[in-house]
Amino acid sequence: MAETKICKECSREIIVSSNEAGLYGKLEMPFPKICFECRTKQMMAFWVFGKFRKGKSDLSGESLITVLPEKTRYPIYTSHEWYSDAWDASDYAKEYDPNRSFFEQLKELQEKIPRPHQTGRNNVDCDWCDDVWESKNCYLNRSFINCENVSYGYRNFNCRNSLDIA
Q: Where are the alpha helices (DSSP H) in the chain?
């Protein structure tokens, strides 16, 4: 028998089918307190959506391309600078003040700490891409893994020698 709950975020009904209830019970998990849409919003809160744009590293002035907005509240470094010893993350350390709002302090900290211009690791010649993992010789691609010789792609996996694919 289906159960109906109310989302704590948006007050919409959450209908939990008997099959779902059985699965939650089997996995010893509590029923969700917020609806799928609200959970998705929370999970995507820090996901960067945007278009590629040219910019410069706030550390060296080196040219870069990023999907981060032009007017960010934090410095942007090239990825190789961000992962290097060219700056010291401990310079941004602050003591927690229990008399101030945690979230206010977190916001202040997040606005000071540099971010890399792109995400991804273990890439070769993929400087003009973002969210790229274990790929080689790619250009203006976004969100892909294990690709080689791919240009102008989006959300691709295990692709080779391709152009303009999504």
A: 18-26, 36-43, 79-82, 102-112
